[in-house]
Amino acid sequence: MRDVLQKSKNRLIAILLLSIIILCVNFNSYADEKQISNDQEQNKEIFIGRFEDYIFAQWCGNNALVVSGRKIGIEWIDILSKKTIKISSPVIVPPRELWQKGCSYGNDYPLNCTSDGRWVIYADRKSSRIDKGYKPPNDSDEPEDWDGGVIDLYRYDVTTGKTQRFAVVRALGPFEAVSPDGTKVFLGGKHNSSIEMPEPKWDVVYFKNYDWVQSGALWFLDSSGIVMGQNDPKSVEVEFFGKNGWAKRFELKQFEYEPFSLAVDKANRIYFDGVEKGKKKIALYRCSIKNKNLSCEKVLEQVGNYKVLPNGDIIITETKDCIKYITLGQGDGKCIAEKGDATLIGIRGISPDGKWLAFVREKKIPKGTFFEKESNLYILKLTNQ
């Protein structure tokens, strides 16, 4: 009997060791594009996962996604193997309690990844605090974009599983921190709570010319600078770094006051959606910077939530029934993913190489007298459209 128990114990240990080996192999592997060529050639949607509630998803390199949501925290998912790594666990509390506890209580939130997919950058919500030496303005009626809050940034190394606290920023919401070339990290406005960055060190850049709000900031794809959109006044703000760096705010006076989204392409052209005064439809505009001036043209008469492929010629946009693929100057485009029986369909992101689209279909699931959301995450090859 004792021999049987010992053999069973040895077998269990062997299984556990094998599992660890498999886990380590998967952990250090990246999706090989050739291995999913069958799905690519047949234009099939590839199902990634089903999640409770609303989710955000962004690309982490060209072979993985970072998914975040109220009930899942932050997860890294390999698009080939579906291997999932929990980077940050969720903090699930009733909305009223969350409101009472304030912004320091809740889920961590991702910023962006390095273009090679190795590092995942996220903000640690629990670290939210008031900056050292911060003094509120004397006039309480004076509008201010920053209330003195700062928050720690962490980076998770997908290849080793290690996490590093590497920077502190003003607590003003998500933005793109690491540059596309992986050499610089943008930390917004300066404060008094900076820390020494561990190895590997990235070049740190801050706002130099103006003390703007970094929330929503995007890097230009050549890593030369950043662009932001503001609503009051409605404007596009740019700052270029380096020896000949400069910054400027371009007011969009002909547009209604409302939130809008930005995108950029490889030619450093800026895209934004907006409603011109006296009109009703949300259109898409493309702008070029020349001699420190901004010139814009309307490229789509109507647009929903949208993404721009790196070359700038193709727009992916949402409609009430589908996601459309539009080649500028070649008509209204075509639906590439249908809503079907879902409540809505939504774009989540385009891979850095412009080859993949991530999107969700959301459903309302009855639960007692209430409804809960269910998000089904997919990817779709774009180069076959």
Structure description:
This protein is mostly beta strands and 385 residues long. Helix content is 10%, strand content 43%. It has three helices and 26 strands. It has helices spanning 2-27, 37-41, 95-101, and strands spanning 46-52, 55-59, 64-69, 73-78, 84-88, 109-113, 119-130, 149-157, 163-170, 184-186, 203-205, 218-219, 225-231, 234-240, 246-251, 262-264, 270-274, 283-290, 293-300, 306-308, 314-318, 322-327, 334-338, 344-350, 356-367, 370-381. The protein has a four-stranded antiparallel β-sheet with strand order 1-26-25-24. A four-stranded antiparallel β-sheet has the order 2-3-4-5, with no helix packed on it. The protein has a four-stranded antiparallel β-sheet with strand order 6-7-8-9, with no helix packed on it. A hairpin with a 3-residue loop joins strand 21 (314-318) and strand 22. The longest helix has 26 residues, at 2-27. The radius of gyration is 23 Å and the shape is globular. The N and C termini lie far apart (64 Å). Residues 1-37 have low confidence and may be disordered.
Q: What labels describe this entry?
A:
single chain; 385 residues; mainly beta; four-stranded antiparallel sheet; 3 helices; 26 strands; globular; disordered N terminus
